[in-house]
Every structure is written in C-alpha cells, then in structure tokens.
Amino acid sequence: MKSKEILKILRPTIEIFYAFFSIFILIFLLLYLSDANFSLAFKGFINSSIGGRNNAYLFSTFSKMALISGMAIAALVAFRGGLFNIGGEGQLVVGGFACAFTGLLVSDFGFIGILISIISGMLVGATWALLSGFLTVYMGVPLLVGSLLLNYPARFITSYLVSHPFRDVQSGLPQTFLLSKNIWLPYFPNTRLDLGILIIFFVYVICLIIFYYTKHGYHSKNMGHSLSYVKLSGLPTKKIVFKTMALSGAIAGIVGSIAVLGIHHRFTDGMLVQPLYAWTGVIAALLVNLNLWFVPLAGFFFAAIYTGAAGMERIAQVPKEIATVIQAVIILFVVGKLGSLTNLSSSKGDKDD
Amino acid sequence: MKISLRDITIDYDNLRAIDDLSLEFHEGKIHALVGENGAGKSSLMSVLYGLNLNYSGKILFNDKEIFWSSPKDAIQHGIGMVHQHFMLIDELSVLENIILGYELDDALGFINFAKIQTEIKALLKLYDINLNLSELVTNLSVAQKQMVEIIKLLYRNAKVLILDEPTAVLTPNETEMFFKTLRNFRLEKKIIILITHKIDEVMSISDHVSILRNGKLINSSKLKQTTKKKIEEQIVGKKLPKLNVRRGIIDEQKILEVNSLRLSTRFSHSQPIDLFIKQGEILGIAGVSGNGQNELIESILGVRKVLSGSIEYLQEDITHKSTRYRRIKGISFIPQDRRKDGLAIKSKVWENVITINLSDQKFSIGPFVKKKSIKNYANQLINEYSIKVDNPNSSVLTMSGGNMQKLVVARELSNNFPLIIIENPTWGIDVGSIAFIHQKILDIKAKGAAILLVSNELDEIEVLADSAVVMYEGNISKRITKDIKFRENIASKMLSGVHFTENING
Amino acid sequence: MTEIFDPEFFSSIARLTTPILLAALGGSICHRAGIFNIGLEGFILLGAFMAVLGSFYANSAFVGALTAVVGGLFLSIIFAEFHLRRKGDPIVISIAINILALGLSTYLLRSIFKVSGVFSHSEIEKIPHIQLPIIENVKILNLLINDQSILFYLSIVIVFILHYFLKYHKFGLWIRVVGENPEVLKSSGINPVRIKFLVLLLCGLLCGLAGAQLSISNVGLFVENMSAGRGWIAVVAVLLCGGRPIPLFLLIILFGLVDSLSLRIQGLGLPQQITELLPYIVCLAVLIIVSYKKLRTFSRIIY
Fold first, then answer.
1. CA–CA distance, B470 with B478 (Å, rounded to integer)
2. Quick check: helix, strand or coil at residue B306?
3. For residue C293, is it within any domain?
4. With an 8 Å Cβ cutoff, are A226 and B369 in contact?
5. Which of A21, A168, B95, B367 has the most other CB atoms within 10 Å of its CB?
6. Using a CB-CB distance cutoff of 8 angstroms, which residues of chain A are in contact with residue C294?
7. Is there a common fold for B2-235 and B254-330+415-496?
8. Residue B505 above 60 pLDDT?
9. What range does the domain containing C68 cover?
10. DSSP B441-478
11. Cα(C144)–Cα(C142) distance, rounded to whole angstroms?
12. Chain A nearest-CA residue for B265
C-alpha cells in the first residue's frame, strides 16, 4: 500500500524522465546513423537556433516562430470548437497564392497594397476552410477527411497556376514574379526580421479576446465539448461552425500572406507545403492542449528545433529532417495526457435507424 | 455450493466504493442486493465477476480462497453475469452473441457454426425458450435481449447468476415471465444474485436480502426476518422531506398540441400520436425506455425529422421550425443524458448557466460577454438550488451526478418558460437530489407551466403527474387521469402493452 | 481514344491499385476493431523506404519485402504503445505517425544513401512478376492481370481470406466485437487490448507490403514522400466501405482505374498538376455522394 502510493506520486516524474530519455536515445541513434560529430552537431544546433552574428539566427527562429504560431492558432481555433480541421495546409497555400497574386496587381499602392494583399489572402483562406465546413454541415462529410482531401486540390491548382499562367518563366522555377519592394513587409530596424511576427501577435491577441470575452468564444467552446448539448439548447450551430471555420481559414491565409510578403516575396510551388508549417501548427496546438495562452511558447520551441536542425545540417552534415522526427516523437509522448479530442475517434459516428 | 466475500474494500481514486464488506451466497437461493444508486452494488459484483481486480479482501468458493485474473477465470468457475447495460452486439446475430468467447472451432480457428447451433437449440428446447438464432440482436425486443443474455450464461454452464437490475427494462408482465425462469433456476440449485432497487420485486421473489448504503453493508438477513418498511428505511438511511403537492389551477389553454404525429422510429407500424398539455398540468409519459419516448421528445424539440402530422405550440404550428426557434419561443428541456445533452461537462459551471439568453443585455454588450454578471447569476443559481460546487469557475466534471442534474434543472427552470420537457430527471442520482428536483418541478407547475414528463419510474409518474399516457413500441395509450387507482391503471396499460397495436388496429 | 486505352493503361491498373488496396485492407481491420487509424500514409511511406533499404543491401526482393514489413510493424508497435497502453487519441497518433514516417524516411535516405530527393540503384532487386500461361490467350485478362507482381495476386487473395476470416473465424468475430463494444469482449473473458494489438500488427504487416509494392515492385527506387496521398485515399475508402473487404476491393479498383487514366491522359498534353489531381477529385466526389446519401437517411438533425 505504502509503496503503491509513493509510486503514484513519483509517476509523473518518472514519465517525464522516460520521455526525455527516449527522445535522447532516438537523437543519439539518428546522429550515429549519419556519422555525425556529436559536439559539432550540438554546437551547430544551439548556435543556429538562438545565436548567430548579430543574433541573425535568433531572428530567423523568430520569423519561423511567427508562421508556426500562426498555423497553431488557426488549428486551435477550429479544434476548440470541436472541428477537426486538418486542412490548414490547403488554406495556407491558397491564401499565400492569393496574396502573391494580389500583391502583383497592387504593388504600386505601398502600405495599402500590403493591406489589400493580406486581406485577399485571408478571404481566400477563409473560403477554402468554409468549403469543408459546408461539406460537413450540408453534405455530411466528416470534417476530418473533408478538410484533409481539400489540401490536394489546393496544392495542385496553385502548382498549376504558378507553373503555367502566372509563371515567372525566366526564373526557371515554378513561381510567380518577384513582388516589388514597396509591398514587402518592412523589417525591424537593423535586422532581417520582418514585421510578420507583429501581425501574428495581433492575431493572437484578437483570438484571446474572441476566446475569452465574446459570445462566439463562449458558444464555440461549449460546442467543442458537446455538440449535442449546444444543438439541443437552441444555439445556431451551423453559424458557429461557419464562423469558426472561416476564422481558422482566415488565419491560415494571413500566415500564407506573411510568408509571401515578409520572407519569400513571391509564391513558389511547394514553399508552404515542404516545411510542414500546417502540420507543425497542428502539433503545436496539441502540445499546449488547446490552451491558446501557451501557443507562442510552443511556436518558439518548434521554430528553434527547425532552425537548430538547419544549423546542424550546415555544420555537421546531419540532415535537417531530424527536426521533423523529434517533433513527431514529442507529440507522441504528450498524446496520452490530452484525452479524446473528437467524438469521431471513439465511435463510428452517428448511427441511426 | 457456497460463495463468500470476505472484508472486501474497493477504492476508486479518492472514493471508497466498498468499505470492508462481507457477504455469503448459498445455492438454491435468490439473494437480493438492494440499495440506491451508487451504493456499491455493481462495484461489489464486478469484483466477484473478475472485472475489477483492484480490491482488497478475499473471495471464497466453498471456503477455499480463489483468485481471478480476468472474467474468464470467474466464468470457468461457473459464475455468469447479466449486466445492467446488455453486453450484446446489435450488429451480430443471436448465435454469435451467445458463443462469444466460447466458440467451438476447428484446427485453424474457424467456428463450427453447425455444431454449435444444434447444441444451443437443444438448450432452448430444454428451457422452452423461443428464439431465432440467426436473427440480428438489433431486431429483438428488450425482453428477448434479456433472454439472449440468460442463454449466454446457460451455454457457459453458469451455476452462479449475477443479475444487475434485470427488470429495469421489462414491462410488468415480462418481469413476471422472467421471474418464472428465475424460480426454475432456483430449483436447479443455482445461486442467484439479484441486484435491484425495486423493493416490491425483492418482496415477491427473493429468499435473502442484503442492503447496501454508501459502500457499507447495512443489513443482511432472510426475507422472512425483515419487512418492506424496514428495508425501505435501511436503503435511504434518513427520513426524506414530504413533497409539497399543491394542486395548481389547470387552465383550459393548450400549451402544446401534437396532432397525428408520425415519428421516425424503428417501430415502423406504430400509430400516429396525439397529445396535448394544458397550462399548469404535468402530463406523464410512462413506459420502459426505448419505446419511442426519446424520439417523441426530439421531434418536439426539432432535432428529429417527423414523417407527418403537426406540432403546435401556443397555437403556432412549429412542425418545421428549427430547434433554435422553438427554444427561443419558450420551450425548456431537461434531458436524461445530462453529461452529453444537458451540459458541456468539460466547461466551467458559469459557462453552463447561459444558453440562448446570452444575448440578453444582462449578460452581454454587443459581441462581448459580461463575465462578472454571468458568474453572479451562476452563484445565484448555486444558492437557490443548493448545488454543491466550489465556485462558478470549477469544471462541471468535478460535480456529482445529482449536482450536475440540479445545475441543468436550475438553468432550464429559471427561464420560466411556458413549456418544460423533462426526460427521466432523476436517472442515476441520489435520493436527496431526487426529492429536491421533484419539489422544484411541482413548484414550477404551480406557477403555471405546462410540463411533459417522460419517466420509466412508475413512482415518479405517480407522484408528479396530473395525468399520464403509456408509450409502447412507438404507440401511445389513452390518457389516464389521476384518481385513486392511478398507479394500477398505468400498470395495467403497461401490462397490456404487448397487445397495444392489435387493440388500436382492431 | 485508342491513345488512352492502350495495353499500358490496362496493365497499369493492377500496379496502381495494389499498394492502396493492401494499405486499405490493413486500415479496414483496424476500422472493424474500432481503431481509428488514419496514419496509413505514414505506414506506406516507411514501408516503401525500408523495402528499398532491404532490397539494396541484401540484393533480394524477398528481404526487401521483409524489411518493409518490419518498418510497418515498427509503426504498429508505436501506435499500440501510445494508443493502447497510454490511451492517446488515435487521430493525434496517426498524425504523429505520418509526420514521423515522413521525417524518418527522408532523414535516413539522406544519411544512409547520401542523396536527397530520389534514390535509385541497379542493385535494388525488384519483386518478381508472375506469368500465368493459362490466361495468355484471353486478351483482356492477359492485359489486366497477367505479368503482375506477386503482391498483386497476394492482395486479391487477402481480400477474400479477410472476408471469410471476419465472418467465420473466431478471431474475426472478436475483432468485430471489439470494434462495436470492447466491454462485451472483456466480460466474455477476452482481453480487448490484446485483440487490438494483434490487429495493429496485422495492419502494419499489410501496409509494409503496400510500401514494398510501391517502391520495389515496378520502379525499384525511393522518392521523398513517395506515398503522396495514397494512404489518405485508402483511409477514405475504408471509411466509405465501413471496413468491409469486398466493397473495399471494388471501390479501390475504381480509384486505381482513375489513377491509370490520369497517367494516360498526361500523355495527351494536359498539365501534370491537373491529371494528378484527378484521383483526389474522384475520391472527394465519391466521399461527398456517399456521405450525402447517408445524411439523407439520418432522421436526427446534427447541425
């Protein structure tokens, strides 16, 4: 009895230790497989995630953090309402393309042009998300698969658009023309960090307000916990679904816009898909157990792993995909603490006579 | 044969479900285990059946200590259990359900269905039971499902039958049939453990009765050595306040009127439903759960499509209006499944006190909520309904079932809406909360609300309702008005339930 | 027309169908056992990589298939550890497994073979193809199913075995029961967790073979993110068929048909992105039609 109780108290500590130990062993194995120099790899990781000349690498971590946090917020907004929108990738891509396309048209308008481009990215992202919302509400398509399958049209259609009609042929790559400098997001003084992170911060604050101080936040949280309660109570469930999905998609669109206006200054095929921004965002949202307050922390954490891994690749020739592996393993170790997120996973959906 | 439980103690996280309890069961006896919800009856039996292995104490089989590592061991020792929620798979055939875990198979593991079928048919013949083995369980009536559970035990050669609330879902005459079977088993020297909360049944069938309260054994004796009154007192442990039944004035105005409504239920041959409720009246719908009551309620609330007919609320046809429209127009609803339909239990208490009225000026300005006034309102409800919870910021999950239900009742009754739909309001909660909720329902009726009360507890209908109908297989009986023979009349309607359709057709 | 429906079109159907079919069969037993495994994409991808790895080093397709299965089982065990023992949400685990497989296969590709993007080598031995002399004279059958990899024939056999297994085998019965209500199985004295674990292993095995078919059956090379959404198509197919093997088989043949078609019409000058999109559009369309039909039969209003 006594030892049982002691074990019960110690259990969380043991679990954390076990998780860290497992991840450590995994990293060790992976580094060993790639014949890496351990100390060099470690130095490279630390130096390029938070160091660099004039903190240049730290700023690049910040810039990644903005994108990851943004996608985490986009995912979290939907998850909190019980809507398992894993189509963030598609919403991000169409938003980014829309922004780049608009940016080319309004490049003479300076600040106003930036605003118009971002808004168009937002609108297109929201529309894409609403599409899966409509499929769920009116057609009965499970949101999980519906939103996911829409990633592929988003990817292929934008790929087609930048490979054929809107391609900058001379660049040799499937991408749009470079945007003119007047509608690039400005940098913070004396740095190479663009203002995108401020925009994401703004989104973060807005979402905090929506979550904790508005009627929509009040209702959508309850819908996330019990759809049937909210429906039976006479609340406008359809409207809540559409609002939530539109918000989620719009945020993904903003993230795409920031990547275009702040970092790449054009839309290149695959530039938003390959770095797995959307999926990292989903994982970050889950890591903080859908608590919006901690999203920036998780965003910084994953961004640091990414830039650190990139540094490791530069200095110690360790493939940077190690970051992806670590990220997946981390979420595996916290998943048992999260509890069930959807009704979909526990039952086979609503059956009826 | 004899089974003894010695010094059994079960602890769930912070809760002691069973406290140092010892009991003996003898062959050829029907041993009733009674107590209110949460007294620990099911917990105790899950130990005997090997489902719960986290206990201290001993299980003795003919005075020899035995250990289970899973229900398989218990089953091999001849113990069988019929759970309160049937352990049957609707999508499988009767045969597949019976043989589960005890399949006769060939060398490759493929099941020899032909051989098993003849074996079970012999068993059915022996006990004179009529059942189609290839039928899917989903098409069976509740009583037939109960039979399948029993055959499952017989097929496994069970000598000890643990029956957890077996009659909760049976109509009175089905119960009688079921008891007849039990008496046969008694003659065969089986040990029968009957878990129930219905004292009438205890009196009519058991040989021995044990009363549990809060995980403790209050009394265990031969039935002859105790009386109904004594048992009742021992179950509750304290005197309950008497209900204050004020007979309000029933106004002639019909609040709700249901006209030839055809529900979409699994009872495809049911007749259209006609109903009305007047102001200041409680209409009870009696009957065993699963006979279409839930579908009727869902149709009135607008979350279920109806086939034909109309629903009128305050002289307005609302048949094709949305749930939102109906609720805003003034229909309150207290569901049976409070954890799923009545509350968002992972949300906080104050997040559960406001639903459609969030747009009231009292609770919001423009798009923003007034947190403070909602929390004040929550505090007000907590006091008024004496809900036990730390504060409005606590999660609903931390509350007991009774307090959760009080929260739902508080929220729904505070609207003072003209129509209140109530579905098994006291399902699975403690006696104190039951009395409290009953009083609140009577009070709101006295204020002039029209109430539709669906309940499978005859006692509840008898105490609360002004008139009642019985629902069976999607059909509704004639209205029974309250008089001295109210209870008997309802029971007899339930009794003749099986012939409902014939009666109406003929 | 003849440009599209040439012999190559017919023989490609089986080739393109097999990996999706094998993975979907794995997914369908998970579905029947009540495990919501939507990580098939990751299972296939790691299987494909491991197949190339094994086949390259051992110079044997058999070893390649074996290592592919090991890769699948590895992910199964991870799934089981975090879902069955630590009670994690299967959707989250599936997502993690997809990401893990993507990261791991790319990482290992670059650190073991020192290439990025594609690895192909003449020493990767391909899974042998089988000639059936009996049907050589039946022209259409000859085109459709002759000279295919062993795994193709195996997958067809598995469809029917699985059908009968689920229906008449005691383990199959337990799988169906555990999927509907694990408590029932438990009260019959069978440990539901053990059944689920075995089901996951079986799924890993089938998905590993799916990966092997993808990488070492016809092409003998590995490309980063080679599964390219096939796992998701398998997931949708499983959902649409409720995990029943025979309808699953038919549906996946339809998807394979569209796949081959899109491959053929690429030759007609349509942009690659549009033709590659075709299978997903068809998948989405079928999903919408089936879901809508189901929604119409619901008498409860959900939203």
1. 8
2. strand
3. yes
4. no
5. B95
6. 140
7. yes
8. no
9. 7-127+136-299
10. HHHHHHTT-EEEEE-S-HHHHHHH-SEEEEEETTEE--
11. 6
12. A353
Kindly state whether B11 is in contact with chain A, defined as any CB-CB distance less than 8 angstroms: no
Lowest mean pLDDT among A47-51, A296-300, C112-116: A47-51
Q: Who contacts C54 (Cβ-Cβ below 8 Å, separation ≥6)?
A: C60, C63, C64, C65, C66, C67, C68
Report the pLDDT value the prediction gives residue C137, as an integer from 0 to 100.
81
Please tell me if residue B343 touches chain A, with a CB cutoff of 8 Å.
yes
A163: which chain C residues are within 8 Å (Cβ-Cβ)? Answer: 271, 273
Inter-chain residue contact B92 with C171, CB threshold 8 Å: no
Cβ under 8 Å to C: B residues 103-142: 103, 105, 108-111, 113
Characterize the bridge pairing of strands B208-213 and C148-149.
Answer: unpaired
Distance CA(C284)–CA(A149), nearest Å, equals 7
CA torsion A59→A64→A66→A67, rounded to 10°?
Answer: 160
For residue C94, the chain A residues in CB contact (below 8 A) are none
- Closest listed residue to residue C41, CA positions, set C98, C2, C102, C120: C98
Question: A110 vs chain C: nearest CA distance in angstroms?
Answer: 34
Mean of pLDDT values over A111-138: 97
Q: Which of A204, A236, A210, A207 is nearest to A223 (CA)?
A: A236
Does the beta carbon of A55 lie under 8 angstroms from any beta carbon of chain C?
no
Q: Is the pLDDT of residue B420 over 80?
A: yes
Contact at CB, C173 and B100, closer than 8 angstroms: yes
Percent of chain B's residues with pLDDT above 70: 96
Domain made up of B2-235: CATH architecture: 3-Layer(aba) Sandwich (3.40)
Domain boundaries, chain B: 2-235, 254-330+415-496
Whether A53 has its CB under 8 Å from any CB of chain C: the answer is no
Does C1 map to a domain? no
**Does A57-352 carry CATH code 1.10.8?**
no
CB contact under 8 A, C95 and A283: yes
How many B/C residue pairs have CB atoms within 8 Å? 78
pLDDT grade for B236, boundaries at 50, 70 and 90:
confident
Q: Which pLDDT score is estimated for A19?
A: 87
* B254-330+415-496 has CATH 3.40.50.300 classification: yes
Nearest by CB to A139, from C91, C281, C295: name it: C295
Contact B163, B82 (CB under 8 A): yes
pLDDT tens digits, A234-254: 999 999 999 999 999 999 999
- Whether C143 maps to a domain, the answer reads yes
Please give the Cα distance from C283 to C264 (Å, whole number).
18
* Shortest Cα distance, chain B CAs vs residue C66, angstroms: 25
CB contact at 8 A, B487 and B458? yes
Give the model confidence (pLDDT) of B81-100 as tens digits. Answer: 999 888 999 999 999 999 99
pLDDT band per the 50, 70, 90 thresholds, residue B137 = very high
Over pLDDT 90: what percentage of chain A?
74
Nearest neighbour of B355 by CB, restricted to A217, A221, A235: A235
Residue of A214, A225, A230 lying closest to B346 (CB–CB): A225
